[in-house]
Amino acid sequence: QVQLVESGGGSVQAGDSLRLSCVASGDTYSANCMGWFRQAPGKEREGVASIGADGTTNYADSVNGRFTISQDNARNTLYLQMNSLKPEDTAMYYCEARRSSAGCYPRLLTSPYGFASWGQGTQVTVSS
Fold first, then answer.
1. Contacts with 42 (C-beta within 8 Å, 6 or more apart), sequence order
2. Chain centroid offset of residue 94 CA
3. Distance CA 45, CA 42 (A)
4. Pairing of β 77-82 and β 67-72
5. Which residues pair with 23 in a beta bridge?
6. Is residue 7 classed as helix, strand or coil in its secondary structure?
7. How far apart are the first and last CA of the chain?
8. DSSP-assigned letter for residue 14
9. CA distance 51 to 34
């Protein structure tokens, strides 16, 4: 099992930037798909960005061009650089580690099937 701890959230103004971090520990080699999903109050979970074991990245249309996912394997850390933030980006952001046999893409991160772990989340609030 993988343990994940997110950090880096906060309250910012529209147009600002934030960088989220997620430190992974435990059986990290069991995961071949890492990513971020978010959930706003009263809304369904939304996969935001994913990165596969081969480094391939994918993004939800809503954040494409503004968010960048990356990882530092030496530090077992996943990042999400968020630029040009909008009020609609306000949500709790979660890091996920998943064992996938069906590729790696943002929508997969919210699937109830398969083996996945996620952290406690970090809140991002963007005001206009």
1. none
2. 6
3. 10
4. antiparallel
5. 5, 77
6. strand
7. 39
8. T
9. 5
Amino acid occupying residue 67 = F
Whole-angstrom Cα distance, residue 8 to residue 123?
A: 8
Distance CA 64, CA 100 (A): 22
Q: What is the pLDDT along the chain (128 residues), one digit of tens a residue?
A: 899 999 999 999 999 999 999 999 998 888 999 999 999 999 999 999 999 999 999 999 999 999 999 999 899 999 999 999 999 999 999 999 999 988 999 999 999 888 999 999 999 999 99
- Give the Cβ contact number of residue 98 at 10 Å: 22
Q: How far is CA 9 from CA 19, 45, 98, 114, in A?
A: 8, 17, 22, 28
Write down the residue that tokens 């971020």 correspond to. 36
Residue positions counted in the chain: 128
- Main-chain phi, psi angles of 20, to 5 degrees: -90, 145
The two tokens of residue 15 are 């147009």
Nearest to 46 by CA among 22, 27, 62: 62
